[in-house]
Protein 1
Amino acid sequence: MLNGKTINLRLIREADLEEMMQIPIHGEETFFSLYMRDEATFRSDMEKDGCWSPDEGCLLITDKQDRLLGDIGYFKPCPYSDVLEIFYHLFYPVSQRRGIMTEALQLLSAYLFAMRPIERLQIFTASANLASRRVAEKCGYLHEGTHRRALFNHGAYHDVEVYSLLREECKPLDDVLLDEEGGAQ
Amino acid sequence: MINGKNIILRSVREADLETMVELGNRVDQIGRFWPINLRSRAESLKNWKKDGLWGKEVGLLLICDFSGRMLGFVARIPYTEWSQGYEVGATIFKRADRGKGYMTEAVRLFTAYLFATEPIPRLQACVAVGNEGSKRVVEKCGFTYEGTGRKLMFVRGKLYDIQYYSLLRAECPSLKNVIKALKATAD
């Protein structure tokens, strides 16, 4: 588990299935908002590797009472590069604009650079998804360009913004973790 | 098989694999910005038996001249799991065959063919900063520069920045017109 100051990141458990199956699709024009979860895929992913492997991993974002807020994870998008791509998603609109995702992204970015000898993390967000772009920018990700018509979502093709963070631009893990006494390290 | 002016594009036959592996493994000849990992014959045969190297994931066509000599290949890969387009890559095996327009002709034919056969909105090409040859190829083929990804590709001991290029459906001429235009140009 990654203990942040106001949130935690932890591995998914079998028991999370019930709540995750009931996350409403609210129709907002964000990246994951139309994603339909299914039980068989959830169970087979959990059985295979608990949704945590070198090529692909997903963690739940929870508050300090272990209530689910969203998920954040990574995958290896490119066969000829070690780069990892990060995705993130809040489950409920009520959690927006509270800095939750910014903290989650800081934690995961710092953790991945600490755990693996990679030089670059990248994020793709729909151009219209201003909230998601703000999260990336607040965590120090640099805008690199716009991929035209790269994403099909909500019935149409959309432009996508590319962001990246290099190792030397990332906050150290100790700066974003909580220490045992409850203060920052 | 697709007949151009100086080249043909065709899918890989079993008898091609040996030559392909041999040419592709010449580290002295491989382009400065192309991966130099060696491929075994066993791995190539296994991949070929799966889908003829023309499957849902990788789709590869050989570039040959009209005498049948293998010059290189052009390929499509899905460039990320959430997107519908492909990334296009190409290589010419031997140094002596570069700079003759073979790759440009292959990419023109290949991109037009992909837009003709698949409901994709875009094709992407990634060109390492410093790879002037490939940059000229994609620009001649109508691709537009979209940005530069930092430290994206590790080749020959060094991490390179990569320039993103893309070609949208509306920017690519039809296969028929590409072939017509190629044949109308003088040598």
Note: Chain B touches chain A at residues 35, 77, 79-85, 121-122, 124, 144, 146-154, 159, 164, 166, 168 (CB under 8 Å).
Protein 2
Amino acid sequence: MIDALSGVLLIPAIAAALLAALPGYRLTARLNVLAALATFATAASLFFVEPKSGPYLLIDDLNKVFIVLTTFVGFTTTVFSASYIGHEIEVGRLTPTYVRFYHAMYQTLMFAMNLALVANNIGLMWVAIELATLTTVLMVGIYRTHEALEAAWKYFILGSVGIALALFGTILVYMAARPVLGEGLAAMVWTELMTAAQKFDPALLNLAFVFLLLGYGTKVGLAPLHAWLPDAHAEGPTPISAVLSGLLLNVALYALLRFKMLLALNPAAIAPGPLMVMMGLISCLFAAFMLYRRRDIKRMFAYSSIEHMGIIVFAFGMGGALANFAGLLHMTMHSLTKSAIFFAVGHIAQVKGTQKIAAMGGLTATHPVLGWGLVLGVVAIAGLPPFGIFMSEFLVVSSSFARQPLLAIPLALGIIIALGGLFLRLNTIAFGEPRGPVAPAQASYLPMFAHLAMVFVAGIYIPPTLVAGFQNVARLLG
Amino acid sequence: MSRGTLSFDVAHLLAGSLVLVSFVQLYQDRLYALLNTFALHALILAASVAWQAFVQDASHLYLTALIALIFKAIIIPTALHRIIVRLGIHREIETVVGVGLTMLLGMGLVALSMVVMLRVTAEADPLAREDLAFALSVVLLGLLMMVTRRNAVSQVVGFMSLENGLVLAATGAKGMPLVVEISVAFSVLIAFIVIGIFLFRIRERFDSVDVQALDRFRGERR
């Protein structure tokens, strides 16, 4: 029986196989878009018809939000990717064989991320996140330049270490669950784990969470485990940077949140919140300072992603209905905005032929649409009104001011420092004397402006059904 | 242990030897020797997993043992051996930290994992408990090796011995479903990808005579 739940897995899987077999990038790029659209439509249908969860696959209010966000950004990125890849083939940076490989890997990545989100089994979830890591490693190294291979290698090594630690944590969770749920499958199934969590051995759970936080935290890009992230973002194709920042970090965060919910059910286990708050705060502050010394435009926005993941993890670490709501909203807004920025950055780097900030300038004069698109994106990501990120950051900061003012101050400081760093560079890129080639861009602006429009609308008005949905999930997260 | 003390002792011996071989790996300063030690590491892992399969009456674990034996102990070391010969890099490994310090760090890590695991798992059954402590030691020693080596081959070997630790942990956790097979399948995939990346990387670094490529490399460097 095929329902929407298996649909979000089957469509990308079949598409990956097809794209690996079909030649011709024009056709495959369109097929890629089509498959992503079909996946998104299937995911959206989850809101209307809820399929049954089984021992392997699970659907609930929490992962519905993540799946829809993932498939939506996945879809818009394919639209951007189609025009991006067209240009890469024209200038000869990618050969048709590599493009075929790229498209197949893109759909494999979508499959892996969806599988991680719907997995009802902690082992299956781990496998899915590992698969997502491996596909992105291959895509980061696709240009075969020295830097790209080095970035892929670094990502592979650090990602594998993270993934290995996460597996150790997963094994420890199984060990904790085994005396209660018995040997076998039941002790690895989320729905079973959640019902019996209060009887687990708290010491084992604590240890497991430390490993899981370090392991999946590496994938979330939390400082000091973030070292792979800027390189991987800078050296891979830009659509992959958009997907990495906008989606893969969220998927790893989702895994972390599930385990946090598990620990929260056991009264004797440590509270996972403070650990997450601490790591979130460190990431936010660290990345904010790192923004000032960036010379590569994609690296800069990679650091901005670390900063925002820090804020999100901070919010979820604080916990409670309001902070969780703010965290969810911020995650959604960050995904939309950051991918929009990468859409702009991808075309800018193609026009200028480089990613170096020093070689760009006066974009608003030479390429008004791209330039102003980037300006809007940076204004949004820096957390200025009227965009949605202002709302969510305001909620995070104000809700923590009400409870822990001492923690809210460094967070607010980090946000302000990051704002300064971003605008400093934006000034060079978007205004001033035009530098570099001024040839018109062959770009598809639709995905970028669609995302920015959504973030803009969210800053002014969020539909009540969405608010109710997010509130419900925030309650679930505890 | 339900089957008396012999099964416990053997499991203990094998897991302990795995830690010991991890230590031996730490100070190998020639790539050939390192690969041979890794083959031994994988061999002991295979024996340990096979013993667990026998003790737990879990026939699927024999498959894991077989994969560890054939793939990790034979195919991978042979393949890496050939790559090293072809690239002509079978000289010394550059270690970032000295051997003495590395060994001391390794001992510290083993002590740490013993203290942490034995204290935390006081109520679990003794075999699983000690297995986990040993497994964590192997994982940490693998990490240490990856940190202290700069050469790609030795980093890969470090990662694979880290994986061995994970397999030890997974088989020690009695009755853990599916995951052993899946994780082993993934370690196969990882190894393939490692070799792939590794080959490309080496080709870029040593075999390129394209001056333009070199210029581009220098120009892009930050």
Note: Chain A has a mean pLDDT of 89.
